[in-house]
Amino acid sequence: MLQATYLQRLEDWIDNYPWLEMLSSLSILIMVAIVITFIAKYIVVRGLFFILGKLKASHYNQYIKDSIVQRIANIAPALVILNGIVAVPHLSVKAIIFIQMLAQTFIILTIALAISGLLNTFNMMYKENPKSNDKPIKGYLQLIKLIMFIVCGLLILGTFLQKDILNVLAGFGAMAAVLMLVFQNTILSLVASVQIASYEIVRLGDWIEMPSLNADGTVTDISLHTVTVENFDKTFTTIPTNKLITDTFKNWRGMSNAGVRRFKRSIYIDQNSIHFLDEAAIEQLSGFALLQGYLKDKQNEIARYNQEVEHLGWHNQRQLTNIGTFRAYVENYLKNHPQVSQKDSLLVRQMQPESTGLPLEIYGFTTTTAWSEYEAIQSDIFDHLIAIIPLFGLKIYQAPSGLDLQQFIGDNKHQ
């Protein structure tokens, strides 16, 4: 009886202080939310984390736990507040509605962030597939996330305006043109991403060159809006995705797939050094194993031709030239080089004479695509050719230097 009387007095006293009853109820609600949070994070989350440990993608567990499971667990206290706030006495209707709006907003954002984390995890797992370099999906996932966050923003806006999302969308119908203008880069990037993936224009790991944007290196990332290139000087160039469709660039993937790399370089011959070969020069050059077959066949061919010309009474007889013999030597040298591909084009040809001499272009492919090895092979080939040219009585054209002028002046003084 005394206890009932005491409780009645306490209730009457609390009725005189409504704010105290409101704070007490809020405190109880917050304590319940904290308990639910503890249960969700330290019991449910640990249970899910234990199950994830049994999966093949266990090395992603920490990321999954932080970006997905922990965020989903945060929804539990928000739901408690969303449904429990109406039970708090003496709280105004506007305050209840505002707190419910905040709770709903928190829940919507949390779900969106959890889905975003799930998509990121899926992309990381997909990258372990060898086919991911040919068919990257990062751009598509970014588009999904963009659409998801737009819907999330509309849901939040509809929550605070207390309108259905369809009505909100109807209100945005008049702004369609503005939205198209705002998201034009995204639309262009989406179309470009589809074309790049469909036609395999660019893959992860490709070496591309785009001089207009100073890009020359390996593609390290393909996203919705940008393609990242790590240049050979260890800098990074970010290329808008649609630029790979509208602008020209060079992709070296074909070279990598073929396993060979082209070299094309010219040696400029001083045209004043070109002449016919006499018997002594022919005998000297016959000492080269690479020229023995050529000289024998060429001499027989010239002898037959000259006999016919002499029989006809003509005077334009043929002779061996040092430039033609050197060209044959270079061709045979390349054909017998172990690091020059014999399955691909191999040319030694004269180009249009220039003021700097007669260009003798050497065109072929090395059997490797490794940069350092390629440069070493190419350098060794031209080291040999430049060094052996004087044996053919040829000179390489070189613009006069200060030393040449000094020597010329000195020779004139002696004269």
Q: What can you tell me about this protein's structure?
A:
The chain has 415 residues and is an alpha+beta fold. Among the domains are: 2-128, no CATH class; 259-275 and 321-415, Alpha-Beta Plaits (2-Layer Sandwich), CATH 3.30.70.100; 279-319, no CATH class. Helices cover 60% and strands 11% of the residues. The chain contains 16 helices and eight strands. It has helices at residues 2-15, 18-52, 61-73, 75-84, 93-127, 138-161, 165-172, 176-182, 184-199, 243-246, 253-258, 279-285, 289-312, 322-335, 371-388, 402-414, and strands at residues 207-210, 215-222, 226-231, 236-240, 250-251, 261-269, 347-350, 358-366. It has a five-stranded antiparallel beta sheet with strand order 4-3-2-1-5, with no helix packed on it. Helix 4 (75-84) runs antiparallel to helix 5 and helix 13 (289-312) packs across helix 14 (322-335). The model has no long low-confidence stretch (mean pLDDT 80).
Short description:
This protein is α+β, with helices and mostly antiparallel strands. It is 60% helix and 11% strand. The strands form two sheets. A five-stranded antiparallel β-sheet has the order 4-3-2-1-5, with no helix packed on it.
Stretches where pLDDT is under 50 for at least 5 consecutive residues are: none
Radius of gyration: 41 Å
**Order of strands across the main sheet:** 4-3-2-1-5
| Cα-to-Cα separation, first versus last residue | 143 Å
H-E string:
HHHHHHHHHEEEEHEHEHHHEEHH
Percent of residues in helices comes to: 55-70%
Query: In total, how many beta strands?
Result: 8
Structural class: alpha+beta
* Shape type: rod-shaped
Strand proportion, as a percent range, falls in: 5-15%
Described by its quaternary structure, the protein is single chain
Largest sheet: 5 strands, antiparallel
The number of distinct helices, counting runs of at least 4 residues, comes to 16
Mean pLDDT: 80
Domain Mechanosensitive ion channel MscS: 185-253
Keywords: Membrane, Transmembrane, Transmembrane helix
Transmembrane segments: 26-52, 72-91, 97-119, 140-159, 165-183
Organism: Acinetobacter rudis CIP 110305
